Amino acid sequence: MTKPLENDLHQFFYDLHQHPELSNNEFETTQKIKKALDQHHIKVLDLPLKTGLVAEIGQGIPFIVLRGDIDALPIQEQVDVSYTSKNDGVMHACGHDFHATAMLGTAILLKEREHTLQGTVRIIFQAAEEVGTGALDVIRTGVLDQAEAVFGIHNDPTLVSGIIGCKEGALTAGVDRFAIRIQAKGTHAARPQDGNDPLIVVAHIIQVFQTIISRRISSDENAVVSLTQVHSGTTWNIIPDTAFLEGTVRSFNTQTRQLIENEIRQILKGIEQTFAVKIDLDWQAGPPSVTNDSIWSNFALQVAKESNLQYREVEKSPIGEDFSFYQEKVSGAFIMIGSGGPYPLHHPKFKIDTNIVFPSALYLSNLAESALGFLQKKRK
Ligand SMILES: [Zn+2]
Ligand SMILES: [Zn+2]
Question: Binding positions for Mn(2+) (predicted)?
Answer without folding.
Answer: 94, 96, 130, 154, 346
